[in-house]
Amino acid sequence: MIDFKQEIANTISNAIEIEAKELKEYIEIPKDSKNGDYAFPCFRLAKELKKSPQAIAEEIKEKIKIDEKYIEKVEIAGGYLNFYISSTLLTNEVLEEIENQPQYGSSKIGKGKNIVIDYSAPNIAKQFHIGHLRSTVIGGALYRIYKYLGYNVTGVNHLGDYGTQFGKLIEGYKLWGEEYDIEKDPINELTKIYVRISDLCKKDESVLQACRDNFKKLEDGDEYCVSLWTRFRELSLKEFQKVYDLLGSEFDSWNGEAFYSDKMPEIISILEKTGKLVESEGARIIDLEDSGINTPCIIEKTNGSTTYATRDLAAILYRARNYDFDKALYVVSYEQTLHFKQVFEVAKLLGIDEKYTNGLEHVAFGMVLLPTGKMSTREGNVVSLNELLQESISRAKEIIEQKNPDLEDKDEISKKVGVGAIVFNDLANSRVKDEIFDWNQILNFQGETGPYIQYTYVRTKSVLEKAGIAENMKLEGVQATALQDEFSQNIIKLLYNFTDVLVQVTDKNEPSILSRYLIDLAKSYSVFYNENKIMIEDVNVKNARLYLTYAVGKVLKIGCNLLGIQMPNKM
Prior knowledge:
Strand content: 5-15%
CATH superfamily of the largest domain: HUPs
Number of domains: 3
Radius of gyration: 28 Å
Structural class: alpha/beta
Shape: globular
CATH class of the largest domain: Alpha Beta
Largest sheet: 4 strands, parallel
Helix content: 40-55%
Strand order of the largest sheet: 5-4-9-10
């Protein structure tokens, strides 16, 4: 497709002799289409050219030579140059691309670049709860979108399968294991043990020390501790897979913290050679004050056991060697911001290429909050993610039965709507915001929700079905001149921007950019549908509007699939 931003940048560059690459970065899409299709903010050049934005705008307008094939007119508004592109050319470009590219919006922009995404990472032997939803869903969306843009992506589920928590579980199992049937209901029973032993640790320091000693034994390969750990891990993964199956989650590696247990001596050896690994109150640390981080990074605890940081450093070294990554993304809550600042700074001491340390990025997100506040496994007030998804499916089914009691395949449709509602709600707003879970909002078929987008998609299918069009509609005989009205053009412009939206997602690692786009597209189609009658006598107009309906449905489905939302054909 024609890159209109590039054409405008080239046009301006020829007039003022500033590189088009720089100018293209400045070009914006106005919120109000009355201000053109693209706007160039001249205040960006005021300092460089030593002129007022208005004067720069007037000078550029006077000098530029417009290729009317691409640009219909240019207007000045304050310090902006507003460009109006050829609507007929734009419409033809979009429709032909929809016709010729089954994976509309995909790209090869990422060809030859390796991305590692570390996401989900639930803790073994604990509830896979609503708090893990965000990492799983945000990471999954990024995984699919990077792939769609041609990147070589490795999705890693860095399981929390190591650490003092296992020392606690082992101690709890030693004390009370016979009281719990962990084979029948592994996660709930292990959670009860964990809550109980955590309470006892608060009251009895000697029990807490026994838990720490258990973890050290686990690190040292103690047969009893390792056998228990293996059993807890296998039972947990079996339960977790139920959630992953519902969410459609995929991972290329399940290497958790335990995978790096034999790789940590090398990390400690490397850090020792730098002279930066020093003793402090019995532990071994890296002081980071020179880097502006006041809290030291603990590498070894007082009893010689390792820390999250040690294991994350081992993972960075392993991933650099095995995946040769350009970017390594860590989709983890903002509570871990300090941890990743420390780890990324210490990683500079590992002797790996600067490319790798520069590519480390913490993709932070806000918490999922219950109306009563924060959750904690330790306190026992968590919401199981599997139960939550099942509840959403059940509620979706009730709504669907009320709206369409004769609908076939209600169970399958309810599953797509219920799970899709949860996923979209999580991705609808900026990831750094905390999210309060509200059923009234999540399953609202009229609001800015997953069910609303799915309902719009189903409407496009219904329109095409009534017109006798089963699946793929052909562009042959469709005329761009029949889609010049305001409502059609709003859709055309949105469809044109789809690839750019996906690129913005990866630039900012922000899936909500795609979520908001899909809401805008669904809303624009609703307005188009209400304002423009489709099944009319004028064949040219009818066919054009049907094809636009087909195009909207296609992009809604692609976009939702990239977010991890499946589309029903009926609702």
